[in-house]
Amino acid sequence: MGTRDRFTSKVMCPKCKQEGVLHVSEEEYRFSPPNRSIDQVDGAFSVAVMRGVKMSLTCGKCGETWET
Ligand SMILES: [Zn+2]
């Protein structure tokens, strides 16, 4: 069993400056890294959760991809 944290994170495309908000939830385990998932994305972005807590974002407007 873990505890579930929810938070929002503002994002901005480094190229076209489109802004959006990620609604993130994170499950914390005592002996393993947190399990992060994206519940909702406000804005034209697609998000992929990478190993651990890194995320890869792709802008739906200009196609720019970056990590956060
Ligand atoms: Zn963009």
Taking Cα atoms only, what radius of gyration do you get, to the nearest Å? 13 Å
Averaged pLDDT, please?
A: 90
Question: What is the helix content?
Answer: under 10%
Give the percentage of residues in beta strands.
over 45%
> Biggest sheet, strands in spatial order?
1-2-3
Uncertain stretches of 5 or more adjacent residues? none
Query: Which structural class best describes the helix and strand composition?
Result: mainly beta
From the spread of the alpha carbons, the general shape counts as elongated
The major β-sheet equals: 3 strands, antiparallel
Annotation, overall tally of beta strands: 6
Give the H and E element order: EEEEEE
Number of helices: 0
Distance between the termini: 27 Å
Number of domains: 1
* Small ligands present: zinc ion
In a few lines, what is going on in this structure?
The chain has strands at residues 3-12, 19-28, 35-42, 45-49, 55-59, 65-67.
Characterization of the model:
Strands 1-2-3 form a three-stranded antiparallel β-sheet, with no helix packed on it. The protein has one domain. With 68 residues, it is mostly beta strands. The termini are far apart. It is built from no helices and six strands. The chain is elongated, with a radius of gyration of 13 Å. 10% of the residues are buried. Helix content is 0%, strand content 60%. Bound molecules: zinc ion. Zinc ion binds next to loops.
